[in-house]
Design goal:
alpha+beta, single chain, about 20% strand, elongated, nine-stranded mixed sheet, three-stranded antiparallel sheet, 12 helices
């Protein structure tokens, strides 16, 4: 039997591998011609004498799917027969070989891998025949103790003073997959390079999915005249949080407002056509007031019943949608799903791990994490 053939499953009294579930992935990779498409990403590089880069990159994906993090963890499954079968090998590469492949990675292969990542996601959306897709944009910190190429010390609330990358991600709300990312050092603002990246992701989606309505959600870091006007001019529906604390007039509008319209028991709103002085045109601004418990300060009495004091929390959203205010609030609140995606990527696919000192190598490892995550989601949808 060939090493790459799908094994026949028989329930017998015999010693089983811990990774038998990879049989499903082996078949799935064949159905989507994954290994053949990966080969196109490394074709421009000279062939290795022993292990080709396609197989090593596929091993990285399997490595992450199995839940392993550091490169040295390959020793836990190096002799496993099913992992060898999925990769089509009789002997798996060691840690040094994988590390060398990452160290020698180049920007061209990274670019091709990003294109394949986008293509697989957009192909899945085309098969689902969705009438509307939602793109969320936000950054996520990758901290490291290494002095890796391209890292810098920036804002990092969990590991203060650590060097890091701060890539900007585009995720697709309908499938929970990552469409693309923009790799950046850790000392840049969220909006650094964001306009071009956002419009680029939109163009990819428009080209692959003609006729599909595209909408975008972002937090207040992306609030700018440049981004808002560019999205509106492109016919893209959007909702963006507004850093209203930076605008004295907005704060005054909230303080002086007497009549608020009710959405539900806890939410009320009003809206206005407004623009900052430096902007070229007005947009729809929604002012949202949320009833919330206020934190008690001072000594706490241990009484059986203690009355709660309620106050309000405020937020402002700029949008070009024509929906009712309640629907826009619900839609914009859906941005929280992207944080869940980041949490899964870091917990299960170890997106936050920085394995080598070269920037292209670390981007390649990040791409392996994103492929592992997206492929599992794709497999779930296909089944």
């Amino acid at each position: 039997m060939k090493a790459t053939a799908i094994p026949t499953l028989r329930f017998e009294d015999q010693r089983l591998t811990s990774f038998a579930g990879l049989v499903v992935l082996q078949r799935f990779f064949q159905l989507i011609s994954f290994k053949m498409r990966l080969q196109q990403c490394f074709r421009h590089l000279a062939k290795s004498k022993i292990y080709d880069r396609t197989t090593i990159f596929l091993q990285l994906i399997i490595h992450l799917v199995l839940g392993f993090r550091e490169l040295r963890d390959v020793e836990h499954y190096r002799e496993d027969p099913l992992v060898q079968r999925v990769l089509g090998l009789r002997c798996l590469p060691d840690v040094a070989t994988i590390s060398r492949m990452l160290r020698d990675a180049d920007e061209q292969s990274v670019s091709k891998l990003r294109r394949l990542l986008r293509d697989l996601v957009l192909e899945r959306i085309a098969k689902l025949r969705l009438a509307r897709i939602t793109l969320d944009f936000d950054g996520s910190v990758q901290s490291t103790k290494r002095h890796a190429e391209g890292t810098a010390v920036g804002f990092n609330k969990k590991k203060k003073g650590a060097r890091s990358y701060y890539p900007l991600f585009c995720t697709l709300a309908q499938t929970g997959q990552v469409l693309d990312f923009l790799h950046r050092p850790g000392n840049v603002h969220d909006s650094n390079g964001a306009r071009e990246f956002i419009l680029q992701c939109i163009r990819y989606a428009q080209t692959a999915l003609p006729g599909v309505i595209i909408e975008v959600r972002m937090d207040s870091a992306f609030f700018s005249d440049d981004i808002v006007n560019a999205l509106d001019a492109s016919g893209i529906e959007m909702s963006i949080s507004v850093p209203f604390e930076r605008f004295v007039k907005l704060k005054g509008m909230i303080e002086n407002r007497q009549r608020w319209y009710t959405i539900n028991d806890d939410l009320s709103y009003f809206e206005a056509q407004w623009k900052p002085k430096s902007w070229s045109r007005r947009f729809r601004f929604l002012f949202i007031r949320t009833r919330a418990k206020q934190q008690r300060k001072g000594p706490v009495q241990l009484d059986l019943f203690e009355p709660y004091v309620y106050g309000y929390e405020f937020k402002v959203i700029v949008t070009n949608k024509i929906l009712a205010a309640g629907s826009i609030v619900d839609y914009h609140a859906g941005r929280g799903s992207q944080e869940n995606t980041f949490g899964e990527l870091k917990t299960h696919c170890h997106m936050d791990y920085v394995p080598v000192r070269t920037r292209a190598g670390n981007e390649t490892y990040l791409l392996a994490s994103l492929f592992a995550f997206n492929l599992i989601r794709d497999l779930q949808m296909q089944i």
